[in-house]
Amino acid sequence: MRFSNNLFGLLKTGRWIRVIDTMKVGIIVKNTTWRAYSQSNRSMDITQGDVLIVLFGSKGEQLIPLKKFKSVEAAETEIEYMCGTLGLQRRYTES
Fold this sequence. Notes:
Shape: extended
Helix content: 10-25%
Strand order of the largest sheet: 5-4-3-6
Structural class: alpha+beta
Number of domains: 1
């Protein structure tokens, strides 16, 4: 697998990660809150909730996010497919 960035739309950069059978795939729920202030000193909070499927290393560290979803149900069906395709176990996280 490789997380890549495209420079100028032409050059792909990124490092390759070898997927081995001791790695795991898990779901992480992230809630990010953005706060903006108006000129009359009123604050407006915007909360953005994302569900990420993440590849974890053999020691439990997060390596790269694989896919992003808006709902947990959609991530659950996709992670079952990924576990079967990649031959990896699922990691149950509570974030």
